[in-house]
């Protein structure tokens, strides 16, 4: 076995170094594109691995060919190919370690170790492919391996780990990395040559000089061709990715200016946030990256909310919703969130992109609107419970009413909406009253007053009304709100008090003049009776009788005055009301016949006991029946009915006379108010007072040209 004397061919060495630089740059360029591409990631990785493996092999193979061995070199093609394959495998393992995960120090060490193995395997196996026997000096071999390892460790740290280099993305980073990588490969080659003693194996064939030169140039040509293809592909891919990167940067810039963006891995760990995310959350980028979104949890949403969120995006579907987050300072903010899952070839999410928009002000406005609507709703509820409410348009057409309006008017909502308030007109107020009302509200002023309305059933009710105009931008009312309160009972009370005031006035008048009138009446009556006894002249006798009748009439009026001024104490005794009424009817039977009036009497029972003052009760029945007879100058019928109902006795005296107009009906019973030409109104007034003293009530019903009914209700005497 003959030791080979090592002499280098400088041309081949320079060519090998240049080709290695080209291969290293191409490989690093392809590896740098891994994070920018999803679909071509596998092709880029294979291309970069192949390029780097070929670069290492070229340096070692051409470097061995550069040795001037005087034509003694022979080639074993299969072993040479095996060295290439093993070198490429180790290169792939090295770059897979440093490019496909979150880097740690251990990954750099393993990647550098695999690259060292690639250089060693290609060199050692390549030597055997040249049919050379090699003896290595262990010390030099170990030192060489450590230096190669350290060189690759520095390259990986600079390219993939150090933030000072990677964050700014310097344009000189890849060329520098290619030079340092080539330096490590070249260094490894020469150190390994230095550590080896090379011998020519016996029996090896000697290749002719022409065959050796042809083979060398063929290898150079093929290597250049392969590397040129890789470099061209790398350049083409880089150009396309540069365009994509430009578009992506434009999209990212637009998103960063308008949205809050975050990227997480499949487990929800934050891997990227933009400036707006940092700004709104109050956390720094370093505090956020590596955490999950629970750091922002405001505890506003239930656990089921987030379970549904993860269930959706875990299936590869886009999730949209509104989330309340908690900033670092403890304040809360709302974001409208869209989470887009990015799927791998297996259809599984490998990362999530969250795009958010700050909607805090909108949510505050919604909350304020809710509070305002609640206040309006509460006010509306209070109004609906206490008042009668109606809305009308500018022309007075009703557009909305509440339940109390329907209840008091008797009309349904459908009957009211679309109509005007003329539907409720009671004809009590004058036209000028409503003209003044409309004049006020059409000028944008609030109107207040009391109105008597007519319900659907014909009954009347009073409302205290406030009409508020709603003014449009042009200063004209576009609708009116009418708020009313039922004051019917108050008006009845006022009417009652007014009547009582009249009675009090009459009482005071009676107290002042009754006695003064009665004394001269007594004298006049005495002298008139004296004259009547001695008068023989029939005509004068008739005149005296007229005087006595008028004196008696005046005396009756005075008696009524006395009742008003000082009511007599009621002496109630238990009596049967039936014979009392029959007695009164028998007294008036003759007068009724003269006026062609028929009297009918009907009682539900023969004996109906009540507590009463018989004489005063007769006076009441006498007045009511006599009024009925006088209301039928052309004759008619009077029906007197007595019934007992729920502990009360009701006596109805009904005539078929001319009736009483509605506006006069309410004044019946007032002093000096009468519907008769020769009446003074005191009779009915006294009758009402008598019934009140018996704890009873009088109700009058009348219809023009059909008649009038006096209903007297008295408490029955229970056994």
Describe this structure in words.
The protein is of the alpha+beta class. It contains 21 helices and 20 strands. The strands form five sheets. A five-stranded antiparallel beta sheet has the order 5-4-8-7-6, with helices on both faces. Strands 10-9-13-12-11 form a five-stranded antiparallel beta sheet, with helices on both faces. Strand 9 (388-393) and strand 10 (398-401) form a beta hairpin. Helix 2 (41-65) crosses helix 3 (77-99), helix 4 packs across helix 7 (173-195) and helix 18 packs parallel to helix 19 (614-630). The radius of gyration is 61 Å and the shape is rod-shaped. The termini are far apart.
Mean pLDDT: 78
Give the strand order, joined by hyphens, for the main sheet: 5-4-8-7-6
Taken from the alpha-carbon principal axes, the silhouette is rod-shaped
Continuous helix count: 21
- Strand proportion: 15-25%
Major pleated sheet? 5 strands, antiparallel
Rg result: 61 Å
Quaternary: single chain
Q: Which bin fits the share of residues in helices?
A: 55-70%
The separation of the N and C termini measures 154 Å
Number of strands: 20
Helix and strand composition category? alpha+beta
Low-confidence stretches: 1-5, 68-72, 165-169, 203-212
Domain PAC: 319-371, 447-499
Transmembrane segments: 7-25, 45-67, 79-96, 108-130, 139-160, 172-193, 214-237
Keywords: ATP-binding, Kinase, Membrane, Nucleotide-binding, Phosphoprotein, Transferase, Transmembrane, Transmembrane helix, Two-component regulatory system
EC number: 2.7.13.3
């Amino acid at each position: 076995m003959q030791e080979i004397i090592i002499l280098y061919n400088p041309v081949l060495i320079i060519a090998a170094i240049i080709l290695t630089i080209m291969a290293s740059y191409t490989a690093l360029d392809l590896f740098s594109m891994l994070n920018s591409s999803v679909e071509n990631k596998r092709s880029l990785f294979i291309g970069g691995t192949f390029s780097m493996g070929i670069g290492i092999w070229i340096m070692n193979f051409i470097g061995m060919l550069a040795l001037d061995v005087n034509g003694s070199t022979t080639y074993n093609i299969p072993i040479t190919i095996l060295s290439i394959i093993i070198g490429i495998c180790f290169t792939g393992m090295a770059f897979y370690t440093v490019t496909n995960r979150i880097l740690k120090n251990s990954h750099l060490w393993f990647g550098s170790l695999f690259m060292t193995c690639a250089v060693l395997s290609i060199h050692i196996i390549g030597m055997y492919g040249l049919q050379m026997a090699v003896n290595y000096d262990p010390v030099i071999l170990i030192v060489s391996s450590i230096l190669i390892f350290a060189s690759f460790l520095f390259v990986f740290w600079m390219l993939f780990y150090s933030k000072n280099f990677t964050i700014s993305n310097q344009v000189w980073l890849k060329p520098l990395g290619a030079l340092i990588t080539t330096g490590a490969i070249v260094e490894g080659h020469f150190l390994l040559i230095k550590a080896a003693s090379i011998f020519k194996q016996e029996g090896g064939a000697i290749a002719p000089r022409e065959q050796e030169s042809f083979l060398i140039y063929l290898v150079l040509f093929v290597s250049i061709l392969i590397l040129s293809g890789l470099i061209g592909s790398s350049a083409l891919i880089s150009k396309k990715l540069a365009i994509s990167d430009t578009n992506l940067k434009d999209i990212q810039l637009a998103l960063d200016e308008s949205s809050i963006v975050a990227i997480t891995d499949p487990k929800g760990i934050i891997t990227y946030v933009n400036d707006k995310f940092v700004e709104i959350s109050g956390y720094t980028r370093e505090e956020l990256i590596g955490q999950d979104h629970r750091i922002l949890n405001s505890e506003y949403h239930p656990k089921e909310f987030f379970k549904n969120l993860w269930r959706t995006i875990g299936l590869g579907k886009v999730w949209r919703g509104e989330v309340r987050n908690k900033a670092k300072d403890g304040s809360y903010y709302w974001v409208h969130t869209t989470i887009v899952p990015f799927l791998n070839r297996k259809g599984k999410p490998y990362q999530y992109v969250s795009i958010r928009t700050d909607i805090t002000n909108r949510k505050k406005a919604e909350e304020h609107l809710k509070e305002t609507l609640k206040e309006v709703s509460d006010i509306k509820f209070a109004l609906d419970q206490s008042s009668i409410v109606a809305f009308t348009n500018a022309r007075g057409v009703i557009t909305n009413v509440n339940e109390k309006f329907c209840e008091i008017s008797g009309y349904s909502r459908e009957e009211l909406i679309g109509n005007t308030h003329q539907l409720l007109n009671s004809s009590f107020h004058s036209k000028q009253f409503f003209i003044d009302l409309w004049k006020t509200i059409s000028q944008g002023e609030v109107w207040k007053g009391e109105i008597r309305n007519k319900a659907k059933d014909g009954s009347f009710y009073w409302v205290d009304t406030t009409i508020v105009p709603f003014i449009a931008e042009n200063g004209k009312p576009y609708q009116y709100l009418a708020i009313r309160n039922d004051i019917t009972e108050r008006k009845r009370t006022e009417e009652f008090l007014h009547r009582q005031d009249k009675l009090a006035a009459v009482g005071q008048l009676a107290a002042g003049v009754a006695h003064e009138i009665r004394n001269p009446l007594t004298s006049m009556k005495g002298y008139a009776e004296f004259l009547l006894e001695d008068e023989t002249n029939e005509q004068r006798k008739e005149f005296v009788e007229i005087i006595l009748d008028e004196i008696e009439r005046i005396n009756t009026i005075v008696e009524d005055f006395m009742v008003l001024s000082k009511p007599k104490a009621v002496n109630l005794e238990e009596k049967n009301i039936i014979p009392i009424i029959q007695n009164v009817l028998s007294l008036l039977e003759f007068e009724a016949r003269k006026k062609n009036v028929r009297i009918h009497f009907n009682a539900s029972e023969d004996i109906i006991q009540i507590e009463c003052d018989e004489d005063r009760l007769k006076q009441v029945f006498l007045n009511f029946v006599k009024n009925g007879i006088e209301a039928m100058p052309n004759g008619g019928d009077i029906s007197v009915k007595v019934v007992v109902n729920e502990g009360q006795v009701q006596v109805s005296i009904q005539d078929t006379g001319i009736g009483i107009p509605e506006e006069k009906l309410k004044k019946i019973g007032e002093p000096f108010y009468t519907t008769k030409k020769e009446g003074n109104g005191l009779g009915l007034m006294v009758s009402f007072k008598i019934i009140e003293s018996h704890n009873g009530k009088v109700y009058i019903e009348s219809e023009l040209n059909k008649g009038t009914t006096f209903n007297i209700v008295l408490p029955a005497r229970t056994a």
